[in-house]
Amino acid sequence: ALHLSYVCAGGHDPAILDQLLHLHLEATAVEKGATGLHGGKRMAMPAEASSTGEQGLDAALLATELENQRLEDEILALKVRRERKANAASQVAQWHAEELAQLQAEVGMLRCHPEQIRPYLPSAILPSPLAPSL
Question: What stretch or stretches form a coiled coil here (predicted)?
Fold first, then answer.
């Protein structure tokens, strides 16, 4: 968990990664010792598990797994963002369609009832039918 959080936060210092690997190996040894108690004695770790070459492979494998996990998390976050954008766009399109339908209904009602439409200019503003001669 420490290694994962360090790498996910952008950590890449080889010395720290090596320390985290050693902590992981110690924790694994303690766990194996706790589950492998036999007559009050800890079972010894195989010699190959403590070799430098295998530790390097374990570190590389762990780093690769952590990078894969980070990339999977990033892909999931991108998918979630894309779905949110798609949902927002479809909601806006639906709202526009509803507004358009409402406006079309209002226009249709106005066309059916032209007597309800008020004249554009009040009669007081219109010139009198008999204009004075010039």
Answer: 61-88
Burial degree of 20 (CB within 10 A; 0-12, 13-18, 19+)? buried
Residue with tokens 């320390």: 19
pTM for the structure as a whole: 0.37
Q: Using CB atoms within 10 A of its CB, is residue 66 exposed (0-12), middle (13-18) or buried (19+)? A: middle
For the segment 94-132, what is each residue's pLDDT rounded down to a tens digit? 999 999 999 999 988 888 876 655 555 555 565 566 656
Closest CA to 26 of 4, 58, 53, 60: 58
User: Over the range 26-64, which residues count as b (16 or more CB within 10 Å of their CB) and which as e?
Assistant: eeebeeeeeeeeeeeeeeeeeeeeeeeeebeeebeebbe
